[in-house]
Amino acid sequence: MLTAIAPVPRKVSRPRADAVRNRERIVTAAREMFVEHGPDVPLDEIARRAGVGNATVYRNFPDREALVREVVCFVMDRTAEAAETALAETRDAFAALERFVHASADERISALCPMISSTFDQHHPDLEASRERVEQLIEEVMGRAKAAGQLRPDVGVGDLMIVVAQLSRPPAGTDCLHGDRFIHRHLQLVLDGLRAPARSALPGAAVTIEELRGS
C-alpha cells in the first residue's frame, strides 16, 4: 500500500524591493511625461526621468501599449481611491463631491484616458476593472449628494466626467504647467452651478456612462 505524500509547499517568489521601486518610478515618470508631451514620448526619455536604464523599462513593460495601459490603470485607481477617501472622511455629501472632483483633476485622468485609442485593447481586463471601479464610486459620490438634496437631480455621471475632463485639460496653445493654476478655480465655478436647487433647466438629457463609452 502506497502512502500518500503531502506535496511540499513551494515558496512563492516575490519581486525584490528595488524591482518594485523601479517599476513605481517608471510608472510615475511615464505619467508625468505623457501628460506633458503625449503618448509618443520616447521610452528612453521616460527611463532617464525615472533614473533607470532602458533595459529596466523593457523588462517591466515589453511595449509602449503595456506601459500606457499601466499608467492609465494607475491613475484610474488613484481616482477611485480619492472617491473612497471623500466618502469615508467627509460627512457633508456635497463637500465630499467637491473633494473628489478636485482630487481627480489633479490626477490628470482626462489627459491620459484618450491614449487608449483604437490601436490599443480597450477591453483589456485590467482596464475594464479599473474603469468599472471608478465609475461605480463616482455614482456613489453623486448619489449621496443627490439623496441629501444638495446636487441637482438632472446631472448624470457622464456630465460630471466630461466637465472634469474638459477643465483639467489645458486649452490648445497654452502651457500645460501654467494652466494648472486655473483648473481648481474653474472647477469650483462649475461645482457651484451643480448645487441644488437648480436655477435653470438644462437642455437635453443627462450624459450616461454608456454614451461616453460609445456603447
In short:
This protein is an all-alpha fold and 215 residues long.
How would you describe this structure to a colleague?
The protein has 215 residues and is mostly helical. The chain has two domains: 17-62, Arc Repressor Mutant, subunit A (Orthogonal Bundle); 64-213, Tetracycline Repressor, domain 2 (Orthogonal Bundle). The protein is built from ten helices and no strands. It has helices at residues 17-37, 43-50, 54-60, 64-89, 93-106, 109-112, 125-147, 157-167, 176-194, 209-213. Helix 4 (64-89) runs parallel beside helix 7 (125-147). The N and C termini lie far apart (62 Å).
Distance between the termini: 62 Å
Shape: elongated
Please summarize the sheet with the most strands.
Answer: none
Give the helix/strand class.
mainly alpha
CATH topology of the largest domain: Tetracycline Repressor, domain 2
Low-confidence stretches: 1-5
Proportion of residues in extended strands: under 5%
The topology string of helices and strands comes to HHHHHHHHHH
What is the CA-atom radius of gyration, in angstroms? 21 Å
Known CATH architecture of the largest domain: Orthogonal Bundle
Domains, number:
2
Question: What is the overall number of helices?
Answer: 10
Can you give the helix content as a percent range? 55-70%
- The first-level CATH class name of the largest domain: Mainly Alpha
Compute the average pLDDT.
84
